[in-house]
Amino acid sequence: MDEKLKIEDLGEYIALLPHERQEKIARYRFEKDKLLSLAAGLLIRRAIGESEIALGEHGKPYAQNGVYFSVSHSGRVAAIAVDDTELGLDVEELPAPERLKIADRFYHPAERAYVKEAEDRRRAFCEIWTRKEAYLKMTGEGISTDLTAFDTLAQPLKGQTVTLPLDGYCLSVCSIEPIGDKRVDISELELKELI
């Protein structure tokens, strides 16, 4: 993200977004988070066009034109996944080593073993975390669910999820259907390319 961009200089782009997204941007305390939320809103707008956003079960947003989407942002990355079926997406920056201990509280035993046995434990931790969040975003349940109750490495969830490495980040997409041969494209854009 361009460090020179300031949210106060981007009012005309914020005005293009739905009122709910404008309020969300305003609630963020830090400039970086406001810019990431703006980028997420612009990605949604690019993906669904002028379609209205409706809320499904558990308050999960979808486009009334039948396009399903999920957005996430972390660090310096905002991402969107788009499909014609329910899906969830999460992107996270690789965690600090001291954060790995929360796997003991929130990961299924098989997932904990996967992290402990991994050569790159930070990346393995991040893979599992993003898979869990992508699944919960796909279902619309959110983090209120017991995270130890499901194993993202086991079928059928394993076949519904794809995790992609990014430089310093993990990105996972979870679909209500098996991903199989579905194509997953990643395009990198700077915020200035969206405005």
What does this structure look like?
The chain is α+β, with helices and mostly antiparallel strands. Helices cover 36% and strands 21% of the residues. The strands form three sheets. Strands 5-7-6 form a three-stranded antiparallel β-sheet. Strand 3 and strand 4 (77-83) form a beta hairpin. The longest helix has 19 residues, at 121-139. The mean pLDDT is 89.
Largest sheet: 3 strands, antiparallel
On the 0 to 100 scale, the average pLDDT is 89
Helical residues, percent? 25-40%
Strand order of the largest sheet: 5-7-6
- The helix/strand order is HHHEEEEEHHHHEEH
Number of strands: 7
Uncertain runs: none
- Our count of helices gives 8
Distance between the termini: 13 Å
Secondary structural class: alpha+beta
Shape: globular
Strand content: 15-25%
Tell me the Rg in angstroms: 17 Å
